[in-house]
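Q: What does the assembly look like in three dimensions?
Context provided by user:
Components: two
Sequences:
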Amino acid sequence: MTSRARAGFITLFLLPATTLYALFVVIPVVQAFAFSLYRWRGISANRTFIGLENFRQLLHDPLVWRALSHNLLLFVGTSVVILALSLALAHAVGAESPLARFLRAVYLFPQVISLVVVAILWMFILNPSFGILNATLKAVGLEEWAITWLGNRSTTLASIGVAHAWHALGFYIMLFAAALRIIPPDVMEAATLDGAVGLTRLRMVTLPMLWAVLRIALVYMAIGTMNIFSLVFLMTQGGPDRATEVMLTYLYEQAFKHSEFGYATALAVVNFVLVMALSGAILALFRHDPQEGRG
Amino acid sequence: MNEGMKAGRIMLIVTMLVAVAGVLVSCAKRSTTSAGKELEVACFKGGYGLDFFEQCAREYEQQHPGVKIKVWGNPRVWEQLRPRFVAGNPPDLTYPGWGMDHWALVYEGQVIPLDEYLDTPPYGKKEGKWRDTFEPSLLELCRYQGKTYMLPYFFSMLGWWYNKDLFEKNGWKPPRTWSELLALCEKIKAKGIAPITYQGIYPAYAVSGFLIPWVISAGGIEAFDNAQNLVPGAWKSPAFLKAAQMIDELRRRGYFQEGANGMDHTGAQMEFISGRAAMIPCGTWLHSEMRNVLPSNFRMGFFLPPVLDDGKGDPTAVGIGIEPWMVPTKGKNRELAIDFYKYMTSLEKAKQFVEQKGTLMSIRGSDQANFPEYLKEPVDVFRRAKTVWSVEYRQWYPKLGKEVEDATQALLAGNLTPQQFVERLERAAEATRQDKTIPKHTYTRGQAR
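A: Here is the predicted structure of the complete assembly.
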């Protein structure tokens, strides 16, 4: 095959996917950038070009900053919890015991449940009247701990973080369990022979060997928490009094409740850039793979 | 491969993409042009379903051979209608539901003023005015700058519900005044039952169930009308402060159910139905909303929020809410849409709606229908009412509405003092007043009903 024919052949195969991607991803994204420069109610074709006004307003909108801080808090909080738990559980599911077999059977359940169901489930668990959490707390004599988890501004965000982590955990267990299997057994044996066991082995051998996966996991976590919407929308509506407002619930409010589609689109653009920047920062920060340069 | 070939290949890909896009767009266009006497009616599918509207459509088709009416809808129909309006291809008649920003449709000229049609005879009549068949206080809510852009269908009343069996068993009576309320709450609390619960995650219920009724009781209906009309200082008037203090007092005395601030509407309403809470603020839709979980022997009663013993306001004042219908400017069959809606609002159909769906209707005389048991009290309350109010600022100024609701949530949680609360409301009202991009409304109260 000549190189020209070959190129045509490849193009032919690339075309359907590229077309669909362009139509449904690239063009809308480009359009979004354009809409963010207008004042637009999103209900007729009328719109007024206002340049960067939406972005200027956004910088001075305290609620944007508050929402963003909630996203970042959720990212930091849940990624620590998820990393610790998923690493531990990834080890556990790799073992050979009845418990490990049980864990293997159930650890992906939360991940495959629809987010709507997850939200309802956690609303039941946290329900102040008949929820299992407060009932348990009362049963063990911790009555003063049995509070309104979702109606109290100091506990709502954490409650949502717990529900989010519970839902996301299975995915990361899967990721790390697979990565653990790839570590050559002889490396582990050698480490054991050298006396590296327990936490030392985790720190000196396992974690460095998992570096590339850890980095990707953190990027996924950043994307997941920056784009969190359904759980917040269903569990608290961003309340009480904005205590759980996040970027996308605020975006939804601006678009559908306030008919500020131009402003909402500007928020979407900013969120897009922030997710990219955060992911980039994580990749840069964890660029140095400790496995490399050891020789 | 040289650079020229690379560029050529990219050009080829781009050309093909454009061609494919063109084909898709032209397909989309072709499928939307359909002529003939066809009417598209897009409806919000709420607790009352679509079946009644569909039934009306079939009857109308029978009476008008050649007419085809397509009724469709779902619980989030407003999200689908937005792009249709933007594309200039809206349905002929629509009931877009509570999630639609109705006034934005008006500002953008997407729905027509209906006054010229309201002055024509009602369905099947030679004389009289269609306008006069509507409850006038409801039609008033549909006006902007002197024109009527929307039409009501059914309406809801706002008030409090009580658990009848629980009350009868204990010899309690629904409280009419603030002092009766405080005395009763103490008795209920002593029984280990929460006196009042509320839908904390959606604070709109607390606003229309506690705040506004007590503003009206403390300062008269003007106190609320002024606030809606953004009169400077109205949102921090003594009436608002008094109402906030009343909410705060109930909270401090522990008369609200613990945890209600974190409950959604179904959660709080379940607390009421299960007997763990004795009273709840809610609209007349409560029964149909909860019918799937309602025990068949559960009896609930409706009453107006208790008023101040020496209140300035009319103690019969009742809050109502409508979910309007409208005729899109770019609909293809305007006359037919109007005539079909005239049919739907004829007295006969209105009475049927009342009987089948168990709600009140905006058509005069429809209250002569056979109401279900749980609607008899609300109907009596409405007949006695000398003043009718409606939370309009929430639709007119969504940002102000949101801020009032957030502040109410904070007040109920004890995070704001009543004084801080009213100051926050006034700040939000001031921001709305100053914002030149927000079109302003004025509500002029008509003659006493």
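Follow-up: Chain A has a mean pLDDT of 91.
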